[in-house]
Amino acid sequence: MGLARRWAEALGWVAVNDAEDAYEIRPAPDGLPGLLSGPVQEAKTVTNRLHLKEPWVVLIDPEGNEFCVRGERRA
């Protein structure tokens, strides 16, 4: 399973591009905002470059990419 499909499934979104070197997911095929991920040339030297300030738990996917999850939102 490609990373786009994995993330889309986890978020309940759709993969609009699932290439090996980059991917994009959105809440709906024409919905925005979406998330686009692609390679960078330099090696990682610090924690994630994008991090939304919420009470997240940091995990690592099977390819070694860090990602954050949080519990269900309550009203």
UniProtKB/TrEMBL annotation:
PANTHER family: CONSERVED PROTEIN, HYPOTHETICAL FUSION PROTEIN. This is Glyoxalase-like domain-containing protein. It comes from Streptomyces roseochromogenus subsp. oscitans DS 12.976. The lineage of its organism: Bacteria, Bacillati, Actinomycetota, Actinomycetes, Kitasatosporales.
